[in-house]
């Protein structure tokens, strides 16, 4: 069994762009095990950079949790 290094559960992030509400990340869950290689792909504007910012602790999710090595990122 492989140890989970990074875990995300039910991530959501939204923001306002003018009068519009943009739901950049909706309900993303994933596990990345130690030694895994991961690619996040998709068309322009689909939320790739927003997801990476959430996973890296640069931004906080509106909903959901991110853990790295078992520790919650929002509590670091």
Question: What would you say this structure looks like, in words?
Answer:
By secondary structure, this protein is mainly beta. The chain is built from 1 helix and 4 strands. It has a 4-stranded antiparallel β-sheet with strand order 2-1-3-4, with helices on one face. The longest helix has 8 residues, at 48-55. The mean pLDDT is 94.
Mean pLDDT: 94
The beta-strand count equals 4
Secondary-structure-derived class: mainly beta
Q: In what range is the share of β-strand residues? A: over 45%
Strand order of the largest sheet: 2-1-3-4
Topology as a string of helices (H) and strands (E): EEHEE
- Residue runs with pLDDT of under 50 for 5 or more positions: none
Number of helices: 1
Q: Strand count, sense and closure of the main sheet?
A: 4 strands, antiparallel
Separation of termini? 27 Å
Quick recap:
With 76 residues, the chain is mainly beta. Helices cover 11% and strands 47% of the residues. It is built from one helix and four strands.
Provide the fold topology.
Layout: E1 4-17, E2 20-33, H1 48-55, E3 63-68, E4 71-72
Antiparallel strand pairs: 1-2, 1-3, 3-4
Name the features.
76 residues, globular, four-stranded antiparallel beta sheet, mainly beta, 4 strands
């Amino acid at each position: 069994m492989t140890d989970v290094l990074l875990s995300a559960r039910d991530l959501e992030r939204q923001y306002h762009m003018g009068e519009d509400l943009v739901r950049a990340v909706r309900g993303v869950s994933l596990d990345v095990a130690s030694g895994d290689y991961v690619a996040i792909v998709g068309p322009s504007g689909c939320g790739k950079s927003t997801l990476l910012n959430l996973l890296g602790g640069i931004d906080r999710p509106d909903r959901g949790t991110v853990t790295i090595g078992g520790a919650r990122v929002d509590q670091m």
